[in-house]
């Protein structure tokens, strides 16, 4: 396995931050809020997702029991602006709330806290919630301060580290994701805060300059050391 020096990643992240600024953290602060945030909108930008998340919060306080009691028309109104298939998004939120109430008494935070830092058990439980999967579960644990071991790469960030040559693309997305976590995450400096910073900077870079199509290599602060740009 390729060994990456923390200094290499640190310099790259500093260069991205100098070019992009410091991307704001997403608005969720609890695990169930993250479930709502991931499922309340579909194929929209971050600003619209945050607006829908806030609207759902005004209607339900992001509380699973309140969500189940709320009138459907009020919830659909809150979901307006969140992209296609509002009824599907509502169904996913109701399914998540039902799961939270049935398995965790409506308090996912208390359940996760009761695992005493067992990240593997927490990941398995969070993966029960639609819209998460392993990367999403790890993101929830990272941004709620329950795990500091992985960057929780999203697809945009994964593309960046592959183009930089830090990790090779594998035959499946799952294998590529795991390779990135195994190779890159241990070398990211700064503990959990550093990994949250890396997650946000790499994701933002992948969405803005290092796009899937027509990447803006001429404007990229990492182009001089990027295998893809050369």
Describe the fold and architecture.
With 230 residues, the protein is an all-alpha fold. It has two domains: 6-23 and 150-225, Helix-hairpin-Helix base-excision DNA repair enzymes (C-terminal) (Endonuclease Iii, domain 2); 31-143, Endonuclease III, domain 1 (Orthogonal Bundle). The protein is built from twelve helices and no strands. Helix 2 (31-39) packs across helix 3 (46-60), helix 2 packs antiparallel against helix 6 (86-104) and helix 8 (119-126) crosses helix 9 (133-143). The model has no long low-confidence stretch (mean pLDDT 94).
Topology:
Layout lengths: L5 H15 L10 H9 L6 H15 L3 H6 L2 H8 L6 H19 L3 H6 L5 H8 L6 H11 L11 H9 L9 H11 L7 H18 L22
Helix pairs in contact: 1-12, 2-3, 2-6, 3-5, 5-6, 8-9, 10-12
